[in-house]
Design a protein that fits this description.
Helix content is about 10%, strand content about 45%. The protein is mainly beta. A hairpin with a 4-residue loop joins strand 2 (about 50-60) and strand 3.
């Protein structure tokens, strides 16, 4: 009986479809602001053309990205603490001038990655989307495009 169960388990293991992504992958590249609402002019939060270093982490259950700009840096994660959908809410932690840290929330929309699914051999990523309350500035909505190459070792 044990042999039969072991054999059935082995057959199920090898017959089951492989998950598209099984472990963490990280990408690093450039983030560009492609559109910014008028409210983004407050405190020079963001304007079209602003850019920074971009890192994107994706794994089976979670995703997050970070942006490192000349005067600030921060991390964006879905409020669900899982993967980004096409739209939803996010949490952002920023460290700005004077080493002041602030947390904020907002909505994201039009979020898309290319490729849409990640495989172990995926070498590049493009991420597009829109963020409201960018860097905690009420009413500041940006659109962005980011692209990156897979980091060695991930």
């Amino acid at each position: 009986m044990k042999r039969l169960l072991w054999a059935l388990g082995a057959v199920c293991l090898f017959a089951a479809p492989a998950a598209a992504q099984t472990k963490e992958q990280r990408y690093q590249g450039t983030f560009f602001v492609t559109a910014a609402s008028d409210d983004c002019a407050t405190d020079r939060t963001a304007s079209v053309g602003d850019n920074g270093v971009f890192t994107f982490r994706t794994e089976t259950q979670k995703q997050a990205f970070s942006i490192f700009e000349p005067r600030s840096g921060g991390s964006v994660v879905p409020s669900t603490n899982k993967r980004f959908g096409k739209s939803g809410n996010y949490r952002m932690t920023w460290i700005g001038g004077g080493a002041i840290a602030k947390e904020s929330t907002g909505a994201y929309s039009a979020f898309a990655t290319k490729p849409a699914a990640f495989a172990p051999g995926t070498e590049t990523v493009v991420v597009n989307g829109r963020l409201t309350n960018y860097q905690g500035t009420a009413g500041c909505t940006i659109s962005f495009e980011a692209s990156g190459l897979r980091r060695p070792g991930y």
